[in-house]
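Mods, move this if it's the wrong board.
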Amino acid sequence: MKKVLKSFKFYLLLVFLLLIGGVYLKDKLHKREVTQFISWKPRPKLVASQFIGDGKAVAIQWETKKELDEALEAQNDDREISVERPINGSHRGNYIAQVSYKLKTDVVTPGLDRKHKTLGGSRIDPISNRSNKPEKGEYWLIDIYDIKDNSIKKHTFDMFKIVRELNEKYIPLAEHTGTLYYDKDDQETYLTLGILVGSKDKYVVKPGDIHVETEYNTKVGLMNIQTGKLSLKTTSGKDYDQLRNDDQKSYKVTHPFESNLKNNFDSKISFFDSRLRYKIKDSENETIPLKSTYPKVYSILSKGHNEKTDGDYEKGEESYLYFLGPEDLNFDIPILELFYPRAGSDTLKLFYNYTIPAEYSKDGQEHLVKNKEEFFEYFKGSPNQN
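Not the wrong board. Structure tokens:
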């Protein structure tokens, strides 16, 4: 009986040790799996949306939690791993672009922190050493969201493939990648993509220092978001610099209210690129009209931006209200007013001490207004409209 008992205890101990060993081995394999990826920009997932104003605006909640948790776990084991946490994207007209990647190399040309290779230097492999095809587990994706007729359609493009189709030797770069611009001449929308054309090493010998410095040849490509075709110029003949400058000028003309740098929005409101982000304070949960007027929009915008929530980016949540198409002040302003307490004092209103620059006023003079009526009395529709 004692022999049986000892034998049972032995096998029980053996099973326990095997379980512990299995857990340890699984943990080691998982750690090796996630830390092989050096550059992370988790892919946003659209988890909720709500249109308002007959499709003139849409609230969208984005989420990256599962992949972000993996990325932060890898970064915790190796501080050289880079993780892009914010969910920003780009917005122009009726389109939203989200660029994401998970790669085993750098995604940018090395900066001062990893400018040259030395014995015992960084383990990070520079992007110039990589293939222009993804390895196992890697991806570099572009998600284009086409928003119209109260619906959202997603089109996904492989950045490696798009850059390779332009030139089989080119490699994608994160620098200058991910911004939407509209070309008013060919009436097409383009997404900027950074491109590594080539690189050249040179040896640098100094007293007590021998290293290799790399010179990089880069360009900025323009992807037509309808066709997915990448080129160095638009069909109207504009390169990146020309398109960017023209778009910014045109945007200022078509969105004068948003472009007014002297606006006095509440500090909780961020309004840029026709995209509104709002940090909801607990004391205002019941006082701002947005909650009763558009409860689902309120719920979406509160994700990741509530005063009680620490570390929005760590949670992998972001949400925005996107204004679609040309600026329409008869719609935009009533929506913005929903973020201000209805029963509050005049000093809490949208247009209290609002400055209208001379270029945006009907008489060419600067005006300081105190309410919406005075605003519409002096503000003109656009800098080119009298």
